[in-house]
Specification:
- The protein is of the alpha/beta class.
- It contains ten helices and 13 strands.
- Helix 4 (142-156) links the parallel strand 5 (110-116) and strand 6 (164-168).
- It starts with a strand and ends in a 9-residue tail after the last helix.
Length: 325
Amino acid sequence: IVTGGAGFIGSAIVWALNQRDVDDILIVDELASDEKWRNLAPLKFSEYMDKGAFRRLVNAGELGEFDKADAIIHMGACSSTTEIDASYLVDNNFQYTKELARFADSNSIRFIYASSAATYGDGSNGYVDDENTIDSLRPLNMYGYSKQMFDLWARRDGMLAGIAGLKFTNVFGPNEWHKGDMRSLVCKAYDQILETGKLKLFKSHRPDYEHGEQKRDFIYVKDAVDMVLFFLDRPEINGLYNIGSGKAETWNSLAAAIFAAMELPRNIEYIDMPTQLRDKYQYHTQAAMGKIKAAGYDKSPTLLADAVKDYIVNHLASHSHLASV
């Protein structure tokens, strides 16, 4: 079962499972009126179910054959860092995840869920995926706190010892077109540069960072999904784990990779950050990756420039989604 299976990371997970010739998959999502249905078209799966109907069946204990699923990979969540409806975030990111975790536990189903690096806040308490220290984390926005709420609940309930919570950093790559303002910079920049010949980046509003020198841990979606499947294959590995590159790259470096992939001269305009974002903005993220490496994951992430080039040349320029074949 893949929740959020029509979304960005969820559909990429289904794509990766298809590469393994796995297609006995129930996709759960809420298609609404955006274009994410297009992510489903190239994929192979056995069933689709609307999120609302799925939740009702889960809570009623009436999921039928799917209560014998091998795993639930729960990517279904509101991922907007600017969402201000706290009640919606609590229901969608906290209550929904609790329902599925309890269902998985009662049916002996492997449970893997998306937490977020947004739980780390400004990074003053580090980016170490240690479930014993998560009480000290202070997310900067309600999205991050809704993820933190579940991490804390799962640890307090004793459930975290039997499930895998994955703290994704800044993921980019194919199948994110539908995300609007929440698309990665690479996706937005491609259209912006084609239209105007230049890229707009936020100015720094801190004296210790030059414009465009704010840093993020960027990870290509193909690498992120490979890490997810690592946990799918190893149900004995549980707890909280970072999903990132382990490198802090500047927005200027990312911009340079974008212009290089498009074979265009670099042309950046620095603009003021909206005032409502300034107190909630992360200036530096860098996931500690020692824990997942110690668990046995030994692959190196794709270099940023190579990942950006693959995304732009093989997907954005050709309007190509991830395909199942």
